[in-house]
Amino acid sequence: MLYGYFGPAGTFTHQALLTLGDHDNRPYASVVAALNAVRAGEVDAALVPIENSVEGGVSATLDNLGSEPVLRIVREVLLPIQFGLYGRPGTRLEDVKRVLTHPHAAAQVRLWMAANLPEATVTEGGSTAGAAESVSKPDSTHDAAVCAKVAGDLYGLTELAGGIADNDAAVTRFVLVARPGTPPEPTGQDKTTLVVYPYLDRPGGLLHILEQFATRGVNLTRLESRPTKTTLGQYCFSIDAEGHLAEERIADALLGLKRTCRDVVFLGSYPRADETETAAQRGSSDHDYRKARAWLETL
User: Fold this and answer.
1) Residue in 45, 20, 79, 47 with CA at minimum distance from that of residue 274
2) b or e along 187-214 (b: 16 or more beta carbons within 10 Å of the residue's beta carbon)?
3) Does the chain have fewer CB atoms within 10 Å around its N or its C terminus?
4) 3-state class of 186 per DSSP?
5) pTM of this structure
6) Measured between alpha carbons, how far is 66 from 34 in angstroms, rounded to an integer?
7) pLDDT tens digits, residue range 162-214?
8) Is there a single domain that holds both residue 173 and residue 149?
């Protein structure tokens, strides 16, 4: 298998990809490039970040996943995130005036930077590993990079400060995305991801969407509004729900959404990385649905 990923080598995405076992991999300069490589058949699948416990959803991934041709999530990976400040050998912490990093990394070390390097200017670039590579060059205009240890070591940098994240419990969630096919078999520890486009002239549109899940005993683990990028004020909703398409309550919720919303884009049912069991509430198990259907057929 050949997997693409949001590169270059040394990014957190690269680290997450290495947890998926033995395979060939190919870095891409952006999330969009990695996803388009899947669409073009250049790679079998691609790993991209979708959500961070501190900063929330990754816009590039959320907005591109549902674009035509639509892709499917087949797996997820959770990776604890630790940042350090790395500079060229001989650099001292007090010498650092210009720092380069990724926007999400900058947001996660903002308090540490304000307390320890209040005069330093932080520039946001394409990736933390790319920042480390840039800083490693003798003619770099930046003194240090905020990145992972693996990236600092890869490009021969010295750690000036370690463990600088404002939140020690930060975790980033990554998804492995492939071309459409049969979803992985249900495990009882699954998620389903979709994008819902409500009718714009319907009051209480979000409440209606939530009711489709609530009345069927489906718990949501993520709900985000995203602009449709067509007209100001038009939004869709990106949703993660507990359960699998093969389960009656999830299938019934999707049918309810498809009947009553402008559009629904299915992005996959796949195993949860945290292996949390999904317990069906009373009245929402597959057995309950089959029993109710059998009763209806007797009428």
Assistant:
1) 79
2) eebbbbbbbbbbeeeeeebeebbbebbe
3) C
4) coil
5) 0.87
6) 14
7) 999 998 888 999 999 999 999 999 999 999 999 999 987 778 889 999 999 99
8) no
